[in-house]
Specification:
The chain is α+β, with helices and mostly antiparallel strands and 144 residues long. It has helices at 13-32, 72-82, 109-118, 134-137; strands spanning 43-50, 55-59, 88-96, 124-127, 130-133. It has one domain (13-137): Cytidine Deaminase, domain 2. Bound molecules: zinc ion (ZN). Zinc ion is lined by residues 71, 73-74, 107-108, 110-111.
Length: 144
Amino acid sequence: MEENQKLPQGVTPEDAQNAVFKKLFWIAVDASKKAYAPYSGFKVGAALLCSDNTVYTGCNVENAAYPLGTCAEKNAICKAVSDGRTDFTAIAIAGSKDEDYSKPCYPCGSCRQVMSEFCDENFKVVVADGYIPLGELLPYNFKL
Ligand SMILES: [Zn+2]
């Protein structure tokens, strides 16, 4: 959320951010419905928020040759980067095997590193029960 946007009276920036993150999470849930996960049955959706509030979605895409599968988060980031975008502020992740999205689905180590290529330690990773800064999920990221 832009800091110069006016909020309705009584709404704090934290309230506004939480509302945006809640919406972003449900966009991730919707994205998970498109997952191709015939092997694990674990469907993951991601919703990547850019600084102008554009959202890129992704889902996991598995393959019979297991290592060739792609994570939802990487999928969303690659879609955005291929569109010329790298100004990310948050990503929401929703994953479930049985359509119960109440448990947090954290990004795998590989996706944390991919996020760190484009995002600083304050980048927000939104899961079912809140958000955590990328710097806490990957404190010692690899950099060249
Ligand atoms: Zn991953």
